[in-house]
C-alpha cells in the first residue's frame, strides 16, 4: 500500500465521474472486474461488467439523461496490499421532470489489485435520506425527502430486483 495505490484508486473515481458526465457506459464499465457485483440505488443487483454497462445505459438514456455527477472521496481504507474500500459522496444533478434537481448518495466500492491494475469488484450505492444526513450538514440534507425516494423509484427504469 503506497501513495501511488491510493492515487490509482482516486483516478478510478475521477474516471467514473468523467464516464458518467459524458454518458459513456462502456468507459464506466471498464473500471469494473468482469465478475463485479453492483448494487444500484434501489437495491437491484447487477453481476458482471456487461450487465453493469447495460444497466447504466438504461439510466443514462432515461432518468439520468444529461445528468452530471460529482464524486468526492471521503476515505480510502486498505484491507490488504491488494484490496481497498473507497467511501464516496455523490452529488447528482438531474434535469428530468418529476425529480429534484440534486440527489445525494454514498457509494462504496471495493477494489482489488489485478494484473491490469486496480479494478472494482463490488459497488454499493446508497441514497442519502434526511434521516441519514448528519444534523450539522444542512446542505446535504436540503431537498432530500421521503417523496424523493418515491419519485426515484417511480421514474427509475430498473427497479430493486435482481437483474
**How many DSSP helices?**
5
Low-confidence stretches: 143-147
CATH class: Alpha Beta
Structural class: alpha+beta
Q: Radius of gyration over alpha carbons?
A: 15 Å
Average pLDDT figure: 86
* CATH-level-2 architecture: Roll
Instruction: State the order of secondary-structure elements, H for helix, E for strand.
Output: HHEEHEEEEEHH
Q: Give a quick account of the main beta sheet: strands, pairing sense, barrel closure.
A: 7 strands, mixed
Q: Kindly identify the CATH topology.
A: Nuclear Transport Factor 2, Chain: A
Amount of beta strand: 25-35%
Number of strands: 7
Taking the alpha carbons of the first and last residues, their distance comes to 35 Å
| 3D shape | globular
Query: How many discrete structural domains?
Result: 1
Task: Estimate the helix proportion, in percent.
Answer: 25-40%
